[in-house]
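Exercise: predict the structure of this protein bound to magnesium ion.
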Amino acid sequence: MVARVNTVSFQGIDVKPVDVQVQISNGLPAFTIVGLPDKAVAESRERVRSALHALGLSLPPKRLTVNLAPADLSKEGSHFDLPIALGLLAAMDVIPKDDLADYVVLGELSLDASIRAVAGVLPAAMHASANDNRLICPQVCGGEAAWAGDIEILAPHNLLQLINHIKGTQVLSQPEARLNDMDARKIPDLSEVKGQETAKRALEITAAGGHNLLMIGPPGSGKSMLASCLPGILPPLSPREALEVSMIHSLAGTLPEGGILRHRPYRDPHHSASQPALIGGGQKVKPGEISLAHNGVLFLDELPEFNRSTLEALRQPLESGNALVARANSHVNFPARFQLIAAMNPCRCGHLGDSDLECNKAPRCAGDYQSKISGPVMDRIDMQVDVPAVSVADLQNADRGETSAAVAMRVQAARDRQARRFSALGADITQNAHAQGHVLEQVTEMTDESRILLNKAMENAKTSARGYYRLLKVARTIADLAGSDLIERSHIAEALSYRRIALND
Ligand SMILES: Nc1ncnc2c1ncn2[C@@H]1O[C@H](COP(=O)(O)OP(=O)(O)OP(=O)(O)O)[C@@H](O)[C@H]1O
Ligand SMILES: [Mg+2]
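Solution:
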């Protein structure tokens, strides 16, 4: 008779059910796993064998066949160890066959039969909850799984505990939902940045409306420092956002302590990052940096130093909020609604426009340097702001500027206004940057003077349709920060000041 255990396989953010079927039959001793296993799954034979040995059980000298159905879905990861081991135990009549019928099982086994953390427990728990199943997962992942709602979870530390629970000789208690504190990094305060009032204002607007921002300035003027202050002024994740973000991080295996994330993600990959690292994919399809930055910030420092094709690959996700990775045998989709913050020098020496410091190739070298970023990528950036060198007077000024906490309060108020407005319209968005079509038209009511200024600027600048809408969204956010429902002339004027039509004009 065949023993069956339910587990899952991950296709991007989608969870596919997998049926682990185990049969022990007469024949030459062999242990085979079929059903498109990858190397980690194939190697689980040795881990399972050793884990059972550690419990004093040895595999019967017969023909053991493990089938992972459906057979045409490729199976990746080490979480198949535990379901395979339980399937074998059921087939060997160590545990009753029927007791596992409504459990979804995942976990990696150590040689000593302890159960190690695996990626994807939260999405698997959501899947189990949606199908009225129960879940068996590693103990360390229990705090993450418990967020999936009303679901019964067994989170054993080792295989023996689990067998004892199933046989009724020990009771495992339901794990408690946990928060993950690993992302509580040290965030510099905005008040530590001297001068740079325009850049700070631009940062506040981007945080309030979820817009993209490019900072351009000479070396050492504080661009990277300003960007690192951003997490301190962003509002915390809403419960729904936290669940979305944690599902992606769970799949990427970046929640080692289990628990759900509370802080808005802030990812700052180095400019040597490859396209699969940034967008997702690779040999094992993992979420890329843009998906890990979902509902948060992707900071690309030294933008022109990124590989050109890597930057171009950002174009589609920047518009759609999704990263679609096509592989030979499947398409994998990860959410990637992130806010792009970028920083760059105006030229290779970095001192363009400063007659004392600029090199003898200026301004030609600036054109070469800036042209590394294509027009379409530039068109997707809502705001560009100059971050000039700070004067000594500013550096020596003892007055502390506004703190991040004060700015964060204004940002939160502006976000609340946006969320209320969008929910009144029945739109499933919360930030101005994501408004489109009819919704955008409905939320961008403006005065006559505003329209006159806007039309005049558009005539002169020959902006793209995308540029026009992005400008409107920034103006909407500026009005929200000012507490105004109508977009006034000054709001349009400020939005225009952040949108340069070409970098070197
Ligand atoms: N406006 C500022 N106020 C206070 N300190 C500053 C300011 N600008 C720069 N600094 C100091 O200089 C250091 C370097 O700044 P930062 O790394 O932000 O420069 P950058 O503009 O990113 O330069 P690069 O173009 O070379 O990357 C900061 O860590 C900080 O100590
Ligand atoms: Mg820098």
